[in-house]
Amino acid sequence: TSKFKEGLAKTRDVFVERVEDLFSRTKKIDEDFYEELEEILIGADVGVTTVMNLISDLRTEVKKQKIEDPSQLQPILTEKLVELLSGTQNGTLNMASSGLTVILFVGVNGVGKTTTIGKMAHMFKSQGKKVLLAAGDTFRAAAIEQLETWGQRVGVDVIKQQSGSDPAAVMFDAVQAAKNRGADVLLCDTAGRLQNKINLMEELGKIYRVIQREVPDAPHETLLVLDATTGQNALNQAKMFGDKAGLTGLVLTKLDGTAKGGIVVAIRQELEIPVKYVGLGEKMDDLQPFDSEQFVHALFG
Ligand code: GDP
């Protein structure tokens, strides 16, 4: 919880402080009150439709429970937010019951994919697992180097080929290496260039099929990495990858860098895909399994 608290400081300072200020300052629950609350929630990227529903739920509760004092509404709002987020909780990853687990990471350049892979490698390694990384973004030489830097930092090997080579061939190599070395987890980086979406999707499809063919039930997870600071853009990216990439979960990065942590609620409401992990900083241990209750309580607790 304290990690969440720290990482969500910006959201707490802006969004939560405004909510708390509104609830304590306002004497009466009237139209102005609802309007201001609406504005604060939308400002935190909660999403317009969700905000409308939330406000309407609050109105109902006010009538039903005959609430007059705004401060009494605060716990109800907290509860509603937890409810809205339910189903997204905990960072349970689907793992192979025995043998190799393969996790594929997809997402647009710059969202924090490499960093997330590095952090997750560290997490698995600390659990005593043998981890390998696959440098599947062969499009950018810098991407391979960056993954290697993370590999060295964490102390895990990176399977790579020179830049420009076929990413599916890298994945084939990586899977063989993982099997030969008895690795427990293979974390696969992929390209995230947006200039040519069709090529990118084809490339991801090919990678997917190689992994599927070489390892039973793999990939065990296909995680889309999204940058929380990009708000609505993040949602659009998820829709773009959505049906084609066979996504099983989301990683929401840079929550520490935004005051608009409400994006988590919008994502939950608008997408069918669960948020499994969140990035709360740039360091190795700044990756946290997502838990809706912890999240809301870190904000309002
Ligand atoms: P990629 O292009 O998707 O692989 O993105 P990178 O992993 O290179 O990350 C892009 C930038 O975002 C880097 O400067 C990272 O340090 C930074 N970054 C990644 N995750 C987080 C996070 O959770 N919080 C913060 N503050 N920065 C992050």
Task: Give a quick rundown of the structure.
It catalyses: GTP + H2O = GDP + phosphate + H(+). This protein has 301 residues and is of the alpha/beta class.
Oligomeric assembly: single chain
Lateral strand order in the biggest sheet: 3-2-4-1-5-6-7-8
Give the total of beta strands.
Answer: 8
Shape: elongated
Which stretches are low in confidence, meaning pLDDT under 50 for 5 or more residues running? none
The total count of helices amounts to 12
The proportion of strand residues reads 5-15%
What gap, in angstroms, lies between the N and C termini?
10 Å
The helix/strand series, from N terminus to C terminus, equals HHHHHEHEHEHEHEHEHEEH
Subcellular location: Cell membrane; Cytoplasm
Family: Belongs to the GTP-binding SRP family. FtsY subfamily.
Protein name: Signal recognition particle receptor FtsY
Subunit structure: Part of the signal recognition particle protein translocation system, which is composed of SRP and FtsY.
Q: Any chance you could write out the topology, listing elements then pairs?
A:
Layout: H1 2-7, H2 9-25, H3 31-43, H4 48-64, H5 73-85, E1 101-106, H6 113-126, E2 131-136, H7 141-154, E3 157-159, H8 167-180, E4 185-190, H9 197-214, E5 221-227, H10 232-245, E6 249-253, H11 263-270, E7 275-279, E8 287-289, H12 292-300
Parallel strand pairs: 1-4, 1-5, 2-3, 2-4, 5-6, 6-7
Antiparallel strand pairs: 7-8
This protein binds guanosine-5'-diphosphate (GDP).
The site of guanosine-5'-diphosphate has 19 residues, from helix 6.
